[in-house]
Amino acid sequence: MNRFFVLFIASVALSLPAQPLRFDLDAQLPLADAMDIPIEVIARVDPSVVSIQHEQAGGTGFIISEDGYILTNGHVVRGFDNEDPTRPAQSIIVVLHNEQQLPATVIGFSMDPDVALLRVHHDEPLRPVTFANSRNVSVGQRCFAVGTPVGLRRTFTSGILSNIDRTDLGTEVVVFQTDAAINPGNSGGPLFDQQGRVLGINTYASRGANNLGFTIPIHVALDMVDDFKEHGRFIRSLVPLFFTGELYSELARALEVERGILISYVMPDSAAWEAGFRPGDVLTHVNGEPVQARTRADLLNFEWEHSVRPPGEPFNATVLRGGRGNWEPHEFTAVLEPLPPLPQFGRHLGEIPEYRYAALGLGVKSLVDLHQIIHELQPVEGVFVKFREDNSTASQADIQAEDVITHVAGKPTPDFDTFLSVFERELQAHNPAIELRIARNHLRIVTALAPDYLLREVRVILIAPNEEHEYVDLLRRELLAAGAKVRLATPDAEPINRDLLNTPLVPDLSLEDVTVEDAEVILFAGGPGARAFWENEEALRITREAIEQKRHLAAAGPAALLPVLASEEALTAKITLPREDSAEAVRRNANYTGKDVESDERIHTTTARTREIVREFLTSLQQAVLRAPVQTTL
User: Fold this and answer.
1) Which of 204, 345, 405, 483 has a beta carbon 3.0–4.6 Å from 453's, enabling a disulfide?
2) Is residue 611 part of a domain?
3) Catalytic: 122?
4) C-alpha pair distances (Å), 233 with each of 9, 78, 455, 580
5) Choice among 158, 187, 307, 567 that is catalytic
């Protein structure tokens, strides 16, 4: 099923940024004139190439505007958050050609096409590259790659374009093949033509003996830039939902059709179906222009060139319908619509957040039409099971990945919000067996989930800042799944957004209403907004009382400094917090350890750098609570 996505119609017309992109569309130099890249060309492009480094990996990029926009690969800057595939790596540093280091922000990234846009700020204008016309290239054309491989400052490797129509890599677009060496760490770097103009972004390297490299044409990357700037991700558009295929010569002769593009699938009752598309039609014109695809490369180019357009534009189609010797033309108009976030498939990490209950071994996400096609599901409403851990509560209930949960406790759960509401209400009630109804292909299964509720009746007050919070919903749902009675508090009891969804979380308390005696655990969530707690009198009061009354005091991210600020007694306790806040801890003579998770008696802290670290912190906190329970006032 991986090949189907290339059939979608994508959007976003290219418009130039404030700092103009520089194009040079002159004809290529004659191949016979030179076998080497001129030294002056190398010297000219060198300042435009940068190294990219972060906590997980690194790669190469290149400057495309004087005001600091940089292109690279999506896989160079992607994060490693299993639940939020749209989250980039943290602490990204761009190293300029003169070794100057600049912090970078990821504006947006995609894994297919494998493109990312970064931004750095510099006192002086940076030197951008110029662009070749990547729609007008030829096999045998001289080229050279510039990169920053692991352990080396800079490498220049030369070769030729040995293939300009590779379509067998599972990518959404046609890619170039080159024999210019693409070494580890060169990913995201530019492939230049002989005149020093960018042909594309180096992305994949062959591990075989031939040492082949693969490059995304630069026009593809530039088609995505404005979407990254405006939306933070690439917004594809489509007529939902039909797929196409190439009408190769033998098939065209068999069907007695001169040219066109085969419509291979139309989802019943979709907008494409309502517009008039039918499986077996042959698309001959779009917006009055003739179209055809004899080869896979033709098809991919058609898909990209004709569909990188804004949603809302008309898609006027002419198709032939009937069969061999009996074709009749039909005309109809559809409207391009924005493609919703993608599920995971092929090279795509997906764009749909997963809600994982590690205490249950269960991860679920919103169900979209593409799930049904990719996984060959029967039409059904519910939530998609993305993750099921072996030897877990979910596995004991015989829940499997790619199941669809249609009912919880006898109530339909046609959408994700309804599922969360019903499921978490059952957890809060400590229901010993939560009935689930599951659709698995043609089967309909009834089962029951039996949580362990190890923290049954443990009272937790979870305190979050109003803005710029992190992992609040993760903390809350994992504690609920473990059986804790969780109440959420924010300053002035203002609602906050869930971490991965647009729906709000409504607090139970304001900080002024928090009574420490009513909880065994006081837990402060992290995120940049938690620094506001450092000077919040109510937050300091709650922290001080929790220490005095020997409650379990837990804090994530910048909030981990609260024990030190609130009580001299906490100065001897081991704490940890994010590296960027460590200077504050040292300045105040705190016993700062720098670990990701720290637990000292009843004070528990974490850097909360990643979702995995937060889960490790919760496990440590749960064990501490079970070892040393606290008497509370009912």
Assistant:
1) 483
2) yes
3) no
4) 16, 12, 40, 28
5) 187
